[in-house]
Amino acid sequence: MSALTFTSESQAIVKKVYGAFFSPGNYEVKPAEQEIIEWGNNYRLPFEGGELAVTTWGSNRPAVLLMHGWGGARAQMTGFVDPLLFAGYRVVAFDQPAHGESDGRRTNLLEIAPTLDLIAQQEGPFEAVIAHSFGTLVTSYALVNLKFPPPARLVYFGAFNRLMDSLPRFQVLAQLPDEMIDGLRAMIYENFGRDLLESITNETLAPRINIPALMFHDLTDNVTPVEDSRAIARVWRQAQLIETEGLGHRGALQSKSIHEQMVEFLKLPISSPASPTTS
């Protein structure tokens, strides 16, 4: 199909690609992660599309919310549980719609973001939100455009900048021709509105978030390029970016050194302009 025209056949193909684009991949939970999930308090929380899988650890302490990325799961964030518990926090994590053990097959940022409000009503307020990749963009969107109560601190890992950059990244992963992506983009714009989608960027949302933030991004990240976090940090007055090397897209989530820097940041007095020690 060298030149895709919008025949009924090609339109059907684009619809299938559209469905795949909004269908997160399944995260393979490791045994150690499953063990941490199982010793937490697990329950299901109703939302518009079914039920969300939620886990909490600890009680009667300031709460920290963990936000996984696209195609991830709450299990992916369990490396933070022990460091946060030892630091005196309660920990909350949930599988976003169509992710992990939550209901749904397809989802998008505009469906995921309101679930933050539901989690906050059930488990908040939150002292901090720790978010990874696409979860950072969802968090920023919810803070600026919805009723999600602002935490005292934010920690972003491998931040995702522009929502519509997900298209060329999806094209590379799926090895789709330009004509197919053009058709997919047109269908997405028609269903959601071009102006709205193009406006959803961390680069424009973050400067409106008056919350101290610590950002980590690895130079070898081949999923979300480090340029995304650099662009965000340039315009976010309250953010500090720490660049790492050799951890890839998910390695920082399990790094003891990174966990120590994160806890040090969370423990800083709110009025303090100081930054955590880098290593």
Radius of gyration over all CA atoms, rounded = 19 Å
Count helical runs.
11
Name the strands of the widest sheet in spatial order: 1-2-4-3-5-6-7-8
- Fold-level CATH name: Rossmann fold
Measured distance between first and last alpha carbons: 51 Å
Low-confidence stretches: 272-279
Q: Biggest β-sheet, characterized?
A: 8 strands, mixed
Q: What is the CATH C level class, in words?
A: Alpha Beta
The mean pLDDT is 93
Helical content band: 25-40%
How many β-strand runs?
Answer: 8
Shape: globular
- Main structural class: alpha/beta
CATH architecture: 3-Layer(aba) Sandwich
The CATH homologous superfamily is called: Alpha/Beta hydrolase fold, catalytic domain
Please state the oligomeric state of the protein chains shown.
single chain
What letter string, H or E per element, gives the SSE order? Answer: HHEEEHEHEHEHHHHEHEH
- The proportion of strand residues reads 15-25%
Structure description:
The protein starts with 7 loop residues before the first helix and ends in a 12-residue tail after the last helix. It is globular and about 60 Å long. The chain is an alpha/beta fold. It is built from 11 helices and 8 strands. The model is unreliable at about 270-279 (pLDDT under 50). It has one domain: Rossmann fold (3-Layer(aba) Sandwich).
